From TrEMBL:
GO MF: BAT3 complex binding; cysteine-type deubiquitinase activity; cysteine-type endopeptidase activity; K48-linked deubiquitinase activity; proteasome binding; protein-folding chaperone binding; ubiquitin binding; ubiquitin protein ligase binding
CDD domains, alphabetized: Peptidase_C19B (cd02658), UBA1_UBP13 (cd14384), UBA2_UBP5 (cd14386)
Residue ranges occupied by any UBA domain in the UniProt entry: 652-693, 727-767
Limits of the UBP-type domain: 187-295
UniProt organism field: Ailuropoda melanoleuca
EC number: 3.4.19.12
Positions of the catalytic residues: 345 (nucleophile), 823 (proton acceptor)
Stated name of the protein: Ubiquitin carboxyl-terminal hydrolase
Family per record: Belongs to the peptidase C19 family.
Amino acid sequence: MQRRGALFGMPGGSGSRKMAAGDIGELLVPHMPTIRVPRSGDRVYKNECAFSYDSPNSEGGLYVCMNTFLAFGREHVERHFRKTGQSVYMHLKRHVREKVRGASGGALPKRRNSKIFLDLDTDDDLNSDDYEYEDEAKLVIFPDHYEIALPNIEELPALVTIACDAVLSSKSPYRKQDPDTWENELPVSKYANNLTQLDNGVRIPPNGWKCARCDLRENLWLNLTDGSVLCGKWFFDSSGGNGHALEHYRDMGYPLAVKLGTITPDGADVYSFQEEEPVLDPHLAKHLAHFGIDMLHMHGTENGLRDNDIKPRVSEWEVIQETGMKLKPMYGPGYTGLKNLGNSCYLSSVMQAIFSIPEFQRAYVGNLPRIFDYSPLDPTQDFNTQMTKLGHGLLSGQYSKPPVKSELIEQVMKEEHKPQQNGISPRMFKAFVSKSHPEFSSNRQQDAQEFFLHLVNLVERNRIGSENPSDVFRFLVEERIQCCQTRKVRYTERVDYLMQLPVAMEAATNKDELIAYELTRREAEANRRPLPELVRAKIPFSACLQAFSEPENVDDFWSSALQAKSAGVKTSRFASFPEYLVVQIKKFTFGLDWVPKKFDVSIDMPDLLDINHLRARGLQPGEEELPDISPPIVIPDDSKDRLMNQLIDPSEIDESSVMQLAEMGFPLEACRKAVYFTGNMGAEVAFNWIIVHMEEPDFAEPLTMPGYGGAASAGASVFGATGLDNQPPEEIVAIITSMGFHRNQAVQALRATNNNLERALDWIFSHPEFEEDSDFVIEMENNANANIISEAKPEGPRVKDGSGMYELFAFISHMGTSTMSGHYVCHIKKEGRWVIYNDHRVCASERPPKDLGYMYFYHRVPR
């Protein structure tokens, strides 16, 4: 309580009501049970409204609920009172006035200001030498708006005084996002000091990574114990990753992993599966060196100079930010900037582009009253509320007004400054969308493309009824794989949300200039002379589009026609065109020395883009499809995949397990089948198979295996190599249920994966939301009509197909050598002209660098 005197030592506000001590006590008595003292772990919001970007600096101040410690602006506090019945709020207001001038006209010397007690960020546009601040706090009792000026130590009940003091002295819940304190907030993993690393000879190359359990080449994590490279978490549609890194931890118990692509000399994104949070590894350089990765060597480039010392790199920053040009600031609705929280520009750029799309504006800002009225009791932890808040902040114009010192003569007479808030701080939004995410919860720079997909994932998971604005990005990709030996083909479809274009460096139109520049650059570096002016490779967009459409080799292709590995090629086409097409230029890679490299290229991106020629055509006349046979299941070493072993030879059936079951009273032949079809995994697993199959008419019939006396293979019937039959074989269902999964989960997983056991298990792990009581599965299971069962299919992904003609309306550019460093800005075409959004600065663009972008946003136009 030492600070109470300082906090409450100021005179009561002039607008406070004068009441006797008995009157104040009488007012508070009915509300005393609702007033709480903040406990450890309580988040006290006194800087920002839960529904808007109002703060104590705002004209109406901020109201902090004395029970939930949520804060609300004047416009929203009544809503919270009506919903919760909480009546007592602390009203916080910061007044800004010009300092008294001295005789010479300058401000008087600085002195300690005892009138500031709120832990707030001051307005960046205000010069502290010219302005002074005064904080005011008072209790307000709703609905009659009774005001109790603070301090009132002698008159307030002790509990209320303690609660007020605790609220005022509390720290910001976002303190760990501040750039100077973030690294201290990440805990050091308890496994870092004594991490076991296997001496297995694994060396990780600087590129060409692929998940060891699937074909994914993005979102990959290196386990720091055994060097396994496995994919990260999955998204709603199974994109982004299949969760194999987590599965590997569950199987092996190896706790730490680092995300490939985030490694810099300053650190990397490290995640502890055991501790379930991002962590610091103080011995990361040593742990990476164990697998051949020299992290500290990445301080420099080939000439030993730091990237920031290379002069030509600065020109990229100048061109993209339009440095040196007289850019006119823009104000009003749709021209609000986002303040940089410390490497949060990737988030700001993506959100500016997202909320320039009408579908997102309608879904969130258009539904603002309904979303706010039906928000949960803690709106800071609700995605739709925070999206709506951010969208309204960007589009309302309320936080983007021309700088005005004073709007009324009356304010000038009072020498009071009415601050104009330009730009909003997305602290609450970033804290929620990055929660528990190992990359975005850090304060390091991130990949804007990865954040875009993360945001789409959140939109999908939190859709408002049937309305889903992310439908505008979704499209279907047709993948055609051809066996080079038999010439047979297979067509499949997958969902995607952006088009990734390779950089066709070999198609540069200025190769002679590039060669001459490279020779001059190396000579200058060798002689320590100034580097020549940068020459960028000029790449035709048509060459990148051609590279996208060309066939690519398929690694480890298994031909079902040959039933063996063979050479295969894959081509991709659009099975549908999205309403909004997002194009990513794949500019980033790694050199042989693990130094991140960026293709510093100029690509003539078109304003009008026609990709109708990339429309998928499906199976063509004369093409023969590959047989629908799954590859044989390989026997891995880890415990999970041992459950997917191939069937055993009947002569190798575990007779001890058979006898244990027979002693329970089951028919001997049924026991033999149970042990056989569960792969000799023990009497308990076989018992589960018996329970599932004991009502079948051939339950006690002898075990007959055509694969050992006829032409058919047992594995074909049991492991789903029987084509597109929609009713899963009971043998595979039994194997999955014996692992502890519900039967309904097993059936739905097998149907979704064409009865492939390995893929079905992955499907179950990546779809935890499908529980036992799934209405769809129960309805299908109870349907006695086999024809209806085989014809019923789950609803496919919703797409908004149409023409493949598009017009460019926004692009995000990156400056720097890696997505893990540098800076992002966004250009958006509004009202017929280009506008640059560079953090909180929003200006009319004079020369939009459309050729240097990283992500491009197109909208469909009629042909």
